[in-house]
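Support reply, case 0932

Customer input (verbatim):
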Amino acid sequence: MKNKSYIYIIFLGIVCMLSSCITTRQTRFLQGGNSYKPVAFQQYELRINDEIAYYLLTANTETQALYNNGQVGGTFAGRTIGYRIFEDGTVRLPIGPVKIAGLTLREAEEEVRNAFLRVVPDAEIRLTMSNNVFFIEGDGMKGRGYLYKENLNIFQALAMTNDIPNSGDRSNVKIIRRGADGIDYIRIFDLREESIIESEFYYIMPNDVIYVPTNPNAFFRIESVSSFMSLIVTPLSFFTMVISLLRK
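Our regenerated output:
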């Protein structure tokens, strides 16, 4: 009877470990489904606490150096100063405050240019965001990426930082995203669904935090047949030895 009890315990342990296996159904992307509706891509609008940096182009090199932190040239050639958008929606530039909250980057660029035209007749402005980044957190993941284009999607963002390990729960991904009202909102979605493409979750916004929790079935970290075999060989060998000793 004792031997049967040991065999039952071993069998129960194997069943428990098998129930913790991570299947391809839990890890495969673009599996179909229509939970999410497509939405038109919207350009990001600048918000309170965003930071921008400008570069002034003018034929007057002295004026250019004065307003560009000593830089003279045709591009962002060196160190730039970041200007924060305050609660009233303005940035405090050397030529005075300019209201840009609620505008796209190109619209804000035009507003800053018009402000500079008051003191620099041939002013041209190049504007960029200083905090144009996103963050990845989660199971075995930690990273930070730069939004090098406006329509960077979530798959590109993951490829740029740390791809999701098999132990990550793709069905319960969270994005912490700041709304136009300045409040952070949490959005939860299933990254495995094909309908995620062109949905509200598809494109990454500046300062997004992408969080991927651990898959509940990853208790034993069984992600493949080989990892399962390596996990059970040692305890099985031990139990086999114990049973053989008990029979003597």
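We compared this against your earlier run and they match. Two observations from our side: The helical segments are 2-19, 24-27, 61-67, 105-117, 154-160, 225-247. The mean pLDDT is 80. Please reopen the case if you see a mismatch on your end.
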